[in-house]
Batch of 2 targets.
Target 1
Amino acid sequence: MFAALKPQAPDKILALMGEFKADTRQGKIDLGVGVYKDPTGLTPVMRAVKAAEKRIWEAETTKAYTALAGEPAYLAAMARMVLGDGLDAGRTASLSTVGGTGAIRQALELARLGNPGVTVHVSDPTWPNHLSIMQFMGVPFVEYRYFDDATRGVDFEGMKADLARAKQGDVVLLHGCCHNPTGANLTLDQWAEVSAILERTGAVPLIDLAYQGFGDGLEEDAAGTRLILSRAPEAMVAASCSKNFGIYRERTGVLMVQVEGAGARDVAQGTLAYLNRQNYSFPPDHGARIVQTILDDDGLTADWRAELEEVRLGMLALREQLAAELRDLTGTDRFDFVARHRGMFSRLGASPEQVRRIKEEAAIYMVGDSRLNIAGLNRDSVPVLARAIVDAGV
């Protein structure tokens, strides 16, 4: 049996990480992996997370299972954080998942149960794992226009035209904020137009909210998601705690499903628990307990929000510095889009050959489509990157 297995193509980002580790050059810069790093290159444990873990360690008396859908207090806290005053508890089912990736997978499983003929509409480009998961599951998908290579912004007219072709019962996968890999986001007015298209077509939104708090602020980054859910009869939100709580390895996520009516909510909740049972049974609890402890304590919440804001503003400062360096070197404003983008990523618009040249000549690693992780920079490395971009002819 196992002799019949075929080698799988390596994940491009993980392969890039391996190349970076093997590179012996001094001053090499990793802008590939999607993990936040502080100016020293460390992915720190947040202060509130440390404090919450200490409380949990001191108070915990058992490692028994929680519920199939996850700890109710965690699910409630995440629903409040993501949906705010727009939360309709009577219409919202929730599921604790293995990271945001697990939430996406369970959302697609739920959509397929509800509509075996579902087609998913996904942005071009999108996070590669979206496509990989759907291909593995055999879920059909089509791409809608999103990124304008000329302006490095959103091709909104193309996006609207493509989304208008969605059918009732299809799923439209949207990035809630800090679009990965481009960094180009919708405005709130554009979110409203997308909502109107979804209402007309009957397609169900699935919002991937992996970076809440990394863009314009914790509340601002959820505004588009909240607008969509305020108008959509049915919707799904897959949220991750990896970035905004810095608990990557704890694999903590949540799937929220909005349905029509309390009866439908009970059915959806039971189906979500069923999906967990068929996959990994009970979800991991430690990361969820950390998040719930923070969000249910005013002092810890305030400290967490303050540190998250420091992270966000630090990335914005790096964006502005890089745009200014490139403006000085080129004598043009053609790289100002870097300052307008939000979140950890921007797509430069460099060719694969230019990306290869930057790697070989300057020891700067980024994904082949020229997605770079802004959080991999610091004040000293920004000028190095700017010079490498110009020298490569980007």
Note: The mean pLDDT is 96.
Target 2
Amino acid sequence: MDQGLRTYLVVTGAYWGFTLTDGAIHMLVVLHFHNLGFSPLEIAFLFLFYEIFGIITNGVGGWIASHIGLNRTMIAGGFLQVVALGSLTVDPSWLSVAYVMTAMALSGIAKDLNKMSAKSSVKLVVPKGENADTRLFKWVAILTGSKNTLKGAGFFLGGLLLYLIGFRWAMGGMASVLFLVYLYAWWALPMGMGKAKAKAKFSQIFSKTREINILSGARYFLFGSRDVWFVVGLPVFLASVTGWNHIEVGSFLALWVVVYGFVQAGAPVLLRKGHHGRGPQGSSARNWALLLAVFPAGIAIALMSGLDPALSLIVGLFAFGAVFAINSAVHSYLILAYSDHDKVAMNVGFYYMANAAGRLTGTVLSGWVYQTQGLAGCLWWSTAFVLAAALISFALPKVPEEATPAAPTSS
């Protein structure tokens, strides 16, 4: 098997294992603490450090990876998630808000080390040759789409484990399995992967090209638009207003993310005709964002009009998810296409720092807006965020022909 493909498969497999636990821990924390009587805003604050430390990790993670290699940052993220999961197996009396926020901070660091490392690695392992840019789009879409499918499975897993064995045993079991996954990845990944030839200065973390800055700004609003209603408002609404139980809520959100992941993985096929054999361009991000804004506005209008809330959410959420998945796939390709090899880790880290900042904003707003304005209010905020992403994307340039990735290094 080609070395580049082998490395890609190891990275993808480890990322899959991590993503299962990431989806499950979110569902476990939301549902468990909702059962304990926490308000939506209090539940949102449990994820505050998760997102804040994700921002910091993305900011410095790319710089660290450029010095020590993407393989090491990915393995560090995996083992840190094991520690985070294990820390939540303590006696329930220890699970104060501050304690859980700290555990989620570790999980946030772990998640963004893994995401930055996995997605940066794709740029390095795509073989050089004809149609390398379309191959890059395909490989990154498969990695990202399959990750989201597994995160959906993680939502289901979290709800199921909470129902069957409880919060504490669920965390312990996931920690044990993930430890074994990352032991194998530690052995299998090549040393020095993604290590820059010229050492970047720390000050270069914030020194980006115009297109990287614009894309990062659009990414901030894109992911804020999802989390402003998805993280807290939606699961709490489903549990408290529609009366769904834990397994029903977890299963529905899991199915949504699975479909979202399949659409994202299939984005290269869906968009092939419009790009004449090349990957997406800056205008693709603008056009798909404009289309996306229709759906949260439509769901909000349906809820405010008194239509059946469960039916409105089921239909609207799947339409939103499909178009959001294509938006995300286009962004994930553009950040790699706009980056050269030596700067890919730092550019991806900066880009996902903006992503994490958007998630943080959306998470906090999700709790506050739901508590004060209801789910319809969350959806109107989502619409405004999507429109902001579309407006910023008007400034994105075309992808240069020389963005075609080079051959992977021997390391």
Note: Residues 3-188+208-400 form a domain with the Growth Hormone; Chain: A; fold (CATH 1.20.1250.20).
